[in-house]
Amino acid sequence: MYDLETLQRENALAVQSAHRMVHGRNKAPDEETIDQPVFPLAILASVLTVGPPSLARLADAILNSDAIHDFLMLVREYLPQYEAEIMAGGGDFDRIKRFKRYFEPLYFEMSALAEAYDEFTLEDFCMQIPVELYGFAGDDLEYFADFRDGYTLLLALFENPCLEDERVPILEHAKDLVGAELLKLIPKDGFSLDDIHEKLDGTEHEGCIAFADWMWQNTGCLQLDANYHEYGAEEWSRQVVDMLTEERWRVDDLQGKMLQAYQWLEANPPHNFKILLDLMNGTEPEKIAKEQIPLPLDKEGQVITKEV
């Protein structure tokens, strides 16, 4: 039966062996490094301070050795400064949570999958980047009745990748919100993406443009253009991690603008929907630039005239 002192010495020898294996060096690490307990024997030593390890835990350490190695490589690639904290005691679930906690402030927000399922293992985690993909998927349209009203109105207004017959229930719902007369001003298939950019670029309706780009996978952001209906999960790679990190703020910005568009439409559906229709059809009232005329203008840019 090994006592704690023996285990600590064995741990030091394991450090030397692991150091040579990982770093390919002929000399052992210095004593300061040896004095710092490392995974996995440090975990066994900590368990033996309060009692013997369970057979299940020992079996997991043996059977899960490949996944532990792969996970450790991820830690050393992306979070080397937190290796000791992440690889400390606990099971797979605890290590994944610690990785997620340290990873997100430096890179991007990960999906909640690792925290939602206790059976999510290190092997699962190492096989793919656990990240949410928000890309538009036509399959989701069968649940459009559960969508918020602003979302439905933009679906009705713009051409989208869904089949023609799938527009019928969307238009029926939109009719209840804004009336049948306004819907007659929409082309049969909706306004195209090119039309949207031509008529709305440079206006205050950035959220509507973002919505159209999102439907057509045209945002330039991996998280907004891809979805798990059409794409497989991404394996861990520095290139993909850097890409997701670089676009994280743009994803938040575009989603925020889309939310503002929904809220604006919902504040007064018939009136605000008509504003978009006028812009798209080129029938909005002509606005005069202030510098072009010395007459008083209202807040909409219209000349204020006095009734005779």
UniProtKB/TrEMBL annotation:
Protein name, per record: Uncharacterized protein
Organism from which the protein derives: marine sediment metagenome
